Amino acid sequence: MITVLKEETTEKQRNELISWLEGLGLRVHVSVGDYKTVLGLIGDTSKIDVEMLEVLDIVEKVTRITEPFKSANRKFNPKNSVIDVKGTKCGDGNFIVIAGPCSVESEEQIVEIAKKVKASGASMLRGGAFKPRTSPYDFQGLKAEGLELLLKAREITNLPIVTEIVSINHIPLFEDVDVIQVGARNMQNFELLKELGKTNKTILLKRGFANTIKEFLMSAEYIMSSGNENIILCERGIRTFETYTRNTLDLSAVPLLHNLTHLPVIVDPSHGTGRANLVKPMAAAATACGADGLTIEVHNNPKEALSDGEQSLTPEEFEDVIKQVNKIREAIV
Amino acid sequence: MITVLKEETTEKQRNELISWLEGLGLRVHVSVGDYKTVLGLIGDTSKIDVEMLEVLDIVEKVTRITEPFKSANRKFNPKNSVIDVKGTKCGDGNFIVIAGPCSVESEEQIVEIAKKVKASGASMLRGGAFKPRTSPYDFQGLKAEGLELLLKAREITNLPIVTEIVSINHIPLFEDVDVIQVGARNMQNFELLKELGKTNKTILLKRGFANTIKEFLMSAEYIMSSGNENIILCERGIRTFETYTRNTLDLSAVPLLHNLTHLPVIVDPSHGTGRANLVKPMAAAATACGADGLTIEVHNNPKEALSDGEQSLTPEEFEDVIKQVNKIREAIV
Amino acid sequence: MITVLKEETTEKQRNELISWLEGLGLRVHVSVGDYKTVLGLIGDTSKIDVEMLEVLDIVEKVTRITEPFKSANRKFNPKNSVIDVKGTKCGDGNFIVIAGPCSVESEEQIVEIAKKVKASGASMLRGGAFKPRTSPYDFQGLKAEGLELLLKAREITNLPIVTEIVSINHIPLFEDVDVIQVGARNMQNFELLKELGKTNKTILLKRGFANTIKEFLMSAEYIMSSGNENIILCERGIRTFETYTRNTLDLSAVPLLHNLTHLPVIVDPSHGTGRANLVKPMAAAATACGADGLTIEVHNNPKEALSDGEQSLTPEEFEDVIKQVNKIREAIV
Amino acid sequence: MITVLKEETTEKQRNELISWLEGLGLRVHVSVGDYKTVLGLIGDTSKIDVEMLEVLDIVEKVTRITEPFKSANRKFNPKNSVIDVKGTKCGDGNFIVIAGPCSVESEEQIVEIAKKVKASGASMLRGGAFKPRTSPYDFQGLKAEGLELLLKAREITNLPIVTEIVSINHIPLFEDVDVIQVGARNMQNFELLKELGKTNKTILLKRGFANTIKEFLMSAEYIMSSGNENIILCERGIRTFETYTRNTLDLSAVPLLHNLTHLPVIVDPSHGTGRANLVKPMAAAATACGADGLTIEVHNNPKEALSDGEQSLTPEEFEDVIKQVNKIREAIV
Questions:
Q1: Most buried residue among B247, B311, D62, D283 by CB atoms closer than 10 A?
Q2: Chain D residues close to B274, C-beta within 8 Å
C-alpha cells in the first residue's frame, strides 16, 4: 500500500504516523520527493482501514497495490472453485443454466415452466417468491407460498431451486432452498451477508447495479469471512447514462473477475439488458468470454394473447438460446 | 399514463389490453398513428405496475405522466411538511444543523463534540454506532455501546440524536433514538423501510449513491405507505465518472425535490464531497438553493497531531461554516 | 411523437400549438386527461426539433415514438448494408479484422506489423498518424509522415489502411487513405462529419465514450445526410463509474444497433477495456453477439524487454485471438 | 509520480526502465515490497507520457502525485487570474453575468434582449449563431448573419458579446467577437484548442458533459501552452444516470477548480439543469460556493403565447435572479 503525505507534513507528524504503522506490523519504506513524501507499506495491509488512514490530515492519498480481499483472492487460492449443488456443479469448466419465471404465479405455471426448461437443458429452476419492487404499490410476490410452489416444482423435476431473499429474517424460511439469491439492491446489505455467511447454503450473489468489481468482491468476502465459501458471482448489468437498455451488461467483468478471484461467475442477460430480443446474443457473448453459467428468465402461459415478456423468453426461444450456447462452448474449448 | 403499442399488434390484442385496463378502473383513449398506436390511460394510474405492462409483448413503451408516488407527492399535499423532533423543527422555513463525528469512539469524545457543536449552533447530534463498511475487515462501530454513549451525550446537551440503522433486527435497540438514519446503501432495503414505517420515529432517509430522484421518493413512499410520515430526505452525492470527489453532490436535487414533494430536504456536504475543504462552500451552496438543513461531520481530539479528517471539520471550522450559512439564509429570505 | 401539455395550459395556447404543428404537415390527435392533455403527432415528425418544442412553456414533455434518424434507420432500409473497401467487404455476413499499432512509429515497425497481422488473417491495417491526446505534452503522432509510412505498408501488403482524422483541415491529406476513422472525441464534431459526408471515403465512426446509441446514430445520420453512406459503426466502450477497466465495453450495443440500423457494427476490444488480457475474451464475446468485425491493437519489437502494451497484443497473441474468433463465427452460423 | 511494477518483473527489466527514466532527467527511488516493486519518480514528471509508461508490460499501474498541468496550475501560479474583456473583469472577486438567448433569431429579438438584460445588470451578451445540434435536421443557427446581429446589439448596448465556435475554419469570422465560447462537445477538439491558443481572444471553455476535472484543465492547458492565457472555465453539468434533469450540475467543481487552478470559473445553470424553474436556485448556489460569474439563457417575445423556454428565463425572471445573486455575494464576502 502506498501513502502519499501532504507537503506541509512535519517530520514529527511523519514519524508519529510511521511508528503507528509499524505498530500494525508493517514495514514502512520512505521516499522523499520534491513536493511530497511517499510511504510504501510492506506486509499484510489487508487489516488496514484505508478510510481511517485517509482521515489523517497529513495524508493526501492512499493507493492499495495488493487487493483488500483475501478469501476470494485468486492470488491466495489459485485453483478455480467448484460449487456443488446436489451434484450440479458450477465453475472450473462446469457450466450451469438457471431458468424460470420472474415471479412464481401459480403451481401450474411454475411446474409447467420447470418441466419445459429442464427438457431444454436447464440445470436449475429460478422463480421469485419475495420480489423487491421500487414501488410499494407493485406486486411483491407470493412470498412463503411462492417458496412452497418452488419446492413442489423441484419435487416433480428434481431441478435444484434458486430464489431471492430480501430480509435477514427470512433465512429460516429458506431452509429447503438450494441456492439463495442475493439481489443487486442487497449486495451491500452487510448484515444479511454476514448471516448468510453462517449458513452452508450456496449463495448466488448478484452485482449491485452501481457497484464496482472491487465492492462486489468485498461483499463476497463478507460471506466468506463468516464461514461460507459456497458463492457464485453474477454479473447482471450496471447503471449508466444509456437509456435504450435497462442496464449496461458489463461482460468484461467476467474475465476480469476470473483474473481476480477463484469463484465462479455467471451472467444474467435478461435483467442485464431488459429486452427479450437481446437475451440470445448476450447469452452467446457471455458464454464466449468464459462465463461459468447463465440465469435466464423464461415464462409460459401460451393461452393468453398478452404473453411475451419484455425481458423474458418463451420455452421455445430458451431452447434455441441453449443450443447456440452449447455450440459456442465447444468452439472455445 | 401513455402506452405505445407495437406495429404488429392485432386489433384483437389491442382490445384485450384495453378491456383489461378498463377493468382496472381507467378510461382508455386510443390514438392511431402511421406506425404505432398510442393508448392514453386516464384516472388513477398509481396502482398500475409499469413493469407488468411493459412485460406485454404488444407494448413497446410505457410513459408515466403523473408520478407514481402519492403520500410524498406535493400535488396531493401542497403544504410543506414540518418534521418536529422534540421541539426542533425541520421544513417550511425551519432549518436544522445535524453535526457530530463519523463514528462514536468514546464517551469523552462524543460528549466533548456534542458540547462544542451545540455551542456553535448545531440543533442535533449525529454519530455512527453501527457502521456499514465496504470491507468486513474495517471497523464496524461500537454498536449498542455507541448508542449508549450517544444517549449520555444527549442527557448532557439536550441535543436530539441521529444515528444510522443497518439491520431490521436493530429497531428495538433504537427505541430511545430521536432520528433514525437510513444510509445510502439501505435506501432500497424495502423490508427495513416497511418496518420503519410502522414506527413513529423520524426517519432521515439518505439518497442511494446511484438512485434516481424518483426511486428516492418511492423509498419515502414505502415508509409513508406503512404509516410513518415523519421523513426528512437527505441528498448526499451520487456516483459518477468523476474521481476527484468521492461523490458528485447533486444540489439540483434540492429544488427539484421541493417541486415534487412536501417533505423537507437536507444536504450532507461531508459525504457528498469526501473532502473537508469542500464542506464550507458546498454547505453555503446547499443553503442558497433552499435546503431545509445540513448534516456535517465534526471531530475533535486537538491533542493528537494526526487529527483532521478528510471529510470532517474541527469544531472551529464548523462554527465558521455555520456563521456563513446563517448569513446566506438571511440573504435568500 | 407524443407531446404532453402542462396542466395550466389554456385552450388558446393549446390551439395555437396545434395549428402550428398542423402547419408543419402533421396530424394532431388530442387526448384530454384528468391533469394533463396529450397530443399525438402523426406523420413525418423527423423534421420536428424536439428541443424547439420542449422550449415551449406549455409543454411538459415530448416523447418520440419513431426514431429521428432516417437514412441510417433499418425501418426505412431493411437490407443489411455491405461496405466494400477495395474488395474487402464488411457487413451482412462479411467479417473484417482491422489490426495494427496504436501509433505509427517507423517504416520498419509498421511494415513488420503489417506483414505479421496479414499472415494471421487481418483484412485491414490500422495505425495512428494524428493522435488526439488529453495532454498537450504527450506524443501527438508522426502526422503526415505517419500517413506516408502507412501507404508504404499498404504498397507492400496490399492491406487497405485505416487511420484517424482529428481536423477538418486534414481531409485533403487523407486522399489516399482507404478508411478514415472518426475517433470517440470527434463523434459529435458535426462540422467534421458534414465534410466527411461530402467525400466518398469509408468512414469508421467510433462511439463517443459518453454518447447514447441514439446520438451515435444521429452522428452517422450527419454523414449520410451529406451524401456518404459508406459508414462502419464501432463500439469502443463507454465511461462508467467502474475503474478497473479504462472503459466499459457495451456489447449489447451490437445487437441493439443491428435492430435499429442497417449499417455494419464492429467492436474495439483494445480501447474498450484498456487491458491486453481482456482482448481475447472480449473479441470472442463481440463475435458471438454478431459483430461484423473487430479492430485490435497489435505491436511488435520483440527485441526490447519493455515491449508488451497494456491494451496491445503481440502478433502471436493476435493470431491466437483470430483462431478463436473464427471458431466462434462457425458456431453461430 | 509512482510506478508499480508487476511481480514477474526481472531485475534486468527493472534496471532498463530505471535508466530510461533517469535518462529523462528524473531521480528514481526504488521500494521493494513482498509482491511488487514501487518506483518513486522525482523531478519534473509533467513531460512523462503516462500512457507510454502504462504500455510497458512490466508496469502494473502509474499514479501521478503532482498534476500534469503547468500553466493552469495554481501551485505554479498562486495568484488568481483576472480576465479583462474591454474593461469588464472576471476573476479574483470580479463577477460577470453573461445573458442572452439560446439562438440569435432576428435583429429585433437580440437587440431587445440585449437592452433588457443590460438594464437588469448583465455584463455581457450571449447568443448562438452557430449551433451544434445532435440532429442534422435541427436548426443550425443563423451562422455568419447571427454574428452580424450580435455586433449590432453590441453597438447599441456596448455589452461585450459571447458566442460559440464550432469549427476551426470559422476563427476568422470571429475576429470581432469579444469572447469565443468552446462548447462541451468541442472541449476535446484539440486542433481547435491549439488554434484558439494562437489568438489573443478570451476563451470561454465549457466542461465536456462527460469529462473529468483533470481533462477539463488539460484542455485549458492546450490553449495556454499555445500562448493564450485568457481563459474562463465554465461548469455546465455532467451526464449521469439521473433523468429528471438534462444534466447534473457539478457545483463542487467550482471550489475544486479554485483549489487546482488560478483561472476564473463560472457556472451555466440553464444548460446545467435544462429546467427554467431550477435556474434561480442553482444560480444562487453557484454564487454561494464562489463562482466568478454566471451564464444564463434569457429570451423575450412576450407577444407570443408560446413563449417561455424550458431552460430559459424572461427578462423579468432574470432580473429577479440577479437581485438574489447580488444579496448572496454580499453575504459571502
A1: D283
A2: none
Q: Indicate whether this model's pTM tops 0.95.
A: no
Q: φ and ψ at A159, to 5 degrees?
A: -80, 130
**Of A72, A53, A73, the residue nearest A62 (C-alpha):** A53
* Percentage, residues of chain B above pLDDT 90: 66
Q: How far, in Å, CA of B275 to CA of D260, rounded?
A: 14
Mean pLDDT for the stretch of residues D9-22: 86
The answer to whether residues A291 and A266 touch, using CB atoms and an 8 Å cutoff, is: yes
Mean pLDDT of C100-110: 93
Cα A264 to Cα A277: distance, rounded to the nearest angstrom: 26
Contact A237, A247 (CB under 8 A): yes
B136 within 8 A of A46, measured Cβ to Cβ = no
Please give the average per-residue pLDDT across B224-251, as a whole number: 94
Q: What is the pLDDT of residues A62-94, one digit of tens each?
A: 877 777 888 999 988 999 999 999 999 999 999
Across the interface, of D277, D289, D324, the residue whose CB is closest to B285 is D289
| Sheet-wide strand order for A27-32 | A27-32, A37-42, A2-5, A59-63
**Interface contacts (B, D; CB < 8 Å):** 122
Q: Give A330 to chain B, closest Cα distance, Å.
A: 33
The type of residue at B46 is S
Contacts of C241 in chain B (CB under 8 A): 210, 239-241
What are the structural domains, with CATH classification, of chain D?
Answer: 2-63 (3.30.70.1140), 83-332 (3.20.20.70)
Handedness of CA D305, D311, D315, D321 (dihedral sign): positive
Could you tell me which chains touch chain C, where touching means 3 or more CB pairs under 8 A? Answer: A, B, D
- C-alpha C205/C-alpha C73 separation (Å) is 16
Which stretch of DSSP H or E encloses residue B297? Answer: strand B293-297
Closest-CA residue of A relative to B308 is: A57
Contact between B263 and B72 under an 8 Å Cβ cutoff? The reply is: yes
Whether residue D305 and residue C10 make contact (CB cut-off 8 A), yes or no, is yes
Identify the closest residue of chain A to D210 by CA–CA distance: A241
CA angle C268, C274, C276 (to 5 degrees): 90
Torsion of the alpha carbons at B99, B105, B110 and B111, rounded to the nearest 10: 180
| Assigned C-alpha cell, B209 | 449513491
